[in-house]
Amino acid sequence: MKSHSKHLVWALTLLALTLPFAASGNKFFAFVLGMTFISLLWATGMNLMYGYVGLMPLMFAGVAGVAGYAMVHFTRTLGWSFWLAMPVASLLAAVVGVALGLPSLRLKGFYFTLCSLVIQTVLTLAFIFFPTYTNGDTGINQVAPPDWFGGELKGMGLDMSVAIFAVAGVLFCAWLVKTPLGQRFVAIREDDVLAEGLGIQVVRCKIIAFFIVSVYAGIGGCFYAVYVGFISPRAFDVLVSMNIWLYVAFGGRATIAGPIIGTAILAPIPFLLQDLQAFKDILSGVLIIVVTLLMPGGIYGAYLAWRSSQSRADSSSNSDKVQEQRV
User: What is the domain-level CATH number for residue 33?
Assistant: First the structure.
């Protein structure tokens, strides 16, 4: 990670950990903030797969749903603690995600995205037509908050827990992409045929990446369930996956700060415009078009491109001055 990017990430990390205290006096803004942190955790996972591996997993929300429903089953039926149910449910969702996505991991680009869309559709139908575990379209309400030393973790304590997990997810991604494994991900994104020719086990690396990304999705799904207190198939449908992708693309994929910026700008909009449902859908469509056509690198990507051009211009100017002095 470059120096200015590292400083930005640490500044945003410090800000993220202080925001729950600032919003504790307003329940609405505290709720919006908590949902933004959950979205940031999801967006960071999506960025790892979409930005660094080069694959767009549209089944992301479905995997989160598997973890959310599993966590509710473990805590209600088996009586587990949330802090035990969450990692088990997340790992279970990751295993299910890899098992379902294994055939698609041999595909590239659009074909992988299309296959992942089919998997997302299958998962959504499973949430609807297996009411014994999911309660179907009705959903599951009154999901209990996490337990905490004999009581329930609510309010600012829950907000801070979500913030800590979101920040930890961002920092882990920042560390991972600098490791040899992360560099293999980037090599696969750039040219998987060449990467395989260099001895990189492409399919194996994709499986590892997809497992890690599914764990991100699962943890976010578990926190979503206890934070909102209600889950249903619509909470984990393809539109949710598209929104998570939009956060990454809008902020800047293959950067650490990009998903943070994109999520901070876009995630609160649905809550701030609750009375304008049609406008929200139109706005999402417009943003997708704008990002695709005008800002393919996202906001932070455009900033990095501008900074690079300025550096080249300054370097060229200094070179011209040196030549003039020599003359």
Answer: 1.10.3470
